[in-house]
Amino acid sequence: xxxxxxxxxxxxxxxxxxxxxxxxxxxxxxxxxxxxxxxxxxxxxxxxxxxxxxxxxxxxxxxxxxxxxxxxxxxxxxxxxxxxxxxxxxxxxxxxxxxxxxxxxxxxxxxxxxxxxxxxxxxxxxxxxxxxxxxxxxxxxxxxxxxxxxxxxxxxxxxxxxxxxxxxxxxxxxxxxxxxxxxxxxxxxxxxxxxxxxxxxxxxxxxxxxxxxxxxxx
Length: 218
What we know:
- Pathway: Purine metabolism; AMP biosynthesis via salvage pathway; AMP from ADP: step 1/1.
- GO terms for molecular function: kinase activity.
- By secondary structure, this protein is of the alpha/beta class.
- It has 8 helices and 8 strands.
């Protein structure tokens, strides 16, 4: 199966992508992983991306598209894949359409994870990270530390990252609405979009997603 996963920041895309890819026995292809792999391996595309990032500039679509196409051509993706974070805008979606068509392939579903905006803000703005070890994370509502402001694991100070502040989250949502949401209409016109609620426990959301994908593919 070939699936695109979309949804606003805080919808749980990364978590769901990992579970869905495992259940469907297809590789999980995320934009973040593509960038890290290409830059660490020193590929031409990775070097280009690094130059843009070091200069404080946005990496152009052509570089991101090139990385995604290279990854989708790899042997383990021959039977399908789950794309997470790509396509991020209409230009990338149109490039993906052209790539698949040229190779005689097509998407099976575009899974849209739906979360109310206030819930997104609550999920992200409530995160707290340990200054001593950033892998230690908590949430003021969903997984609070035993002592406020103190990491349970090492006693380090917990703080709110700048990226997790409410103002930053709302700006990220504005970007999502303006740049990424249009791809949902693009794929709706192709009859590919299935929308599910991303509220509830992780396993519940995964179950809904698997049912929606199965129904779309039937």
